[in-house]
Amino acid sequence: MTLVELVRLALARLGASRLRAALTMLGVIIGVASVIALVSVGQGATSGITSRLEGLGTNLLTITPGATRTGATRGAAGSSTTLSVDDATTIGAIPEIGAVAPELTTQQLVVAGPLNTTTSIVGTTADYATVRNFAVWQGAFLTDAAVANDLRVAVLGSTTADDLGLGADAVGTQVSIGGLPFQIVGILQPKGSAGFVNEDDQILVPITTLRRQFVGGDSVRTISVSVRTADGIPTAQAELEQLLRARHGLSGSDPDDFTIQDQAQLIDTVGAITGTLTILLAGIASISLVVGGIGIMNIMLVSVRERTREIGIRKAVGAKRGQILVQFLVEAVTLSLLGGLVGIALGLAVSAAIAAAAGWTFIVQPMTLLLATGFSLLVGIVFGVWPARQAAVLDPIAALRYE
Amino acid sequence: MSVPIVALDRVSRVYRTGRVEVPALVDATLFVQPGEFVAIVGPSGSGKSTLMHVVGCLDRPTSGSYAIAGSPVADLDDDSLAELRSRTIGFVFQSFNLLPRTSALENVATPLLYQGVGRRQRLARATAVLERLGLADRLAHEPSELSGGQQQRVAIARALVTEPALILADEPTGNLDSHAGAEVISVLRELNASGRTVVLITHDRAVAAVADRQVPIADGRLVA
Lengths: 403, 224
Hints:
- The complex is a heterodimer.
- By secondary structure, chain A is of the alpha+beta class.
- Helices cover 55% and strands 18% of the residues of chain A.
- In chain B, the strands form two sheets. Chain B has a six-stranded mixed β-sheet, sandwiched between helices. Chain B has a four-stranded antiparallel β-sheet with strand order 2-1-4-5.
């Protein structure tokens, strides 16, 4: 008996009771489909979040000032004013670092013709575009000259431009920011929102201008740093720490008065969280695979009982135990494998639909498909062996007499 | 003299249910030579079926020795018995025992499946035997589409397809009307005439009368 013949026999048998076969397979179909869909959706979500985080900037380190400390009371993180524009300038000397952009933010009322909005005015330098992955849609970005000469020029985020009813022809015109006229030099391309901050709803102006007109002082809220290569991040981080500690006059035992956040670390953390969630969901889904397997075992046991006489006949005409065992096992495996394949198709369809609806990329890893097929095979074997064994050990005389 | 097809030597078969021992077959001695047509005749409860199971290698004797076509069956495990059935015995049962929802052709080809014969050859051999039994136009019919007499002829074809040394027929006419029964008996006679060894088990003396030799059985004992 070759495998082809066994499968032919099993298919003929299952074809004789299609509805029963279909209902039996349903458990495995649902199990496999949900595992596939959940894993695929999990991976889609992970890659979606990761790509958005990467959109914030490549090899990005973010330095924020530490908390103020008044006696025993610790203030909010970022509340102290320990980071300065000079810190940012010095940082640029570290060889691993490609670009440095200090940021200082204030909220101002912006007026353009009849429309107005209140939004974040970010004072920064020309490097900001490189560090934070911004591309200019119309006009130009802030220039070093504009920063050096604290010109009243502004680059608008795409959302802000929309809010103010400004299109491509707005470049070169003026807006009023906090009551002062600024010339629009550029409009940014939309980036998509990253979490809670909408990076498209802001206006960029030279940091010198912002300090002179609105904020004053020397402190900055954030320094964004772009490291040249991903491999250089740890070194850059260590050197930054050393440099800032030295500049801030901290002795060996003093805690840092700043925080360096690594974008890659954040991505890793997000990846770990979504990965854990995916495994958890897939684990729950695989419970239904087990339930499906029990369904197969149940129906195979019924089948063995129903076909006792048939088994007796087969044995009388010379079937050995092993041959009967294999025949019933192949039947169970055919059920679960067919269910698995239908489940894979269904799971892929569902995850493609979810990905399309959520705007993720539809990700299928061949490994997932292999695993799903392997698992349905395993389910068929594990839950098919016992009924098949029951069939194989039947006494031919008793089986022939069975009514 | 050639090797007997059936060589039962003081064979007993005792069933145990709890503490009670029921001797179903006692000291049975029977030799069937190649080409013989032997009928074993007895009323129900006489041990006919037990004898059939032992002769057909479906069961093992409790004591005594049994050899079929020269092969002793003592100490054989289930699979070896199955192998022996497959090679040397063709069964014809009272209730036909065809596989349901399976064509006559596939039914007849089934014993060859377990011998490991390839599909093409299986179907060719099964077709040839069915044609020989006048069922050439019934190959694709399932048992439920066949008359009793036709079903029994399919069963005989299945018994013949492996070219066994022995055809063992257990009440083959029991479920048939007299016309179909006579037809089946004449098929068995023809097989015997062409050299096949046949053992027929029946309660019907008229049926047994067609055999060369009748062996009555009563209370588990053969009356030779």
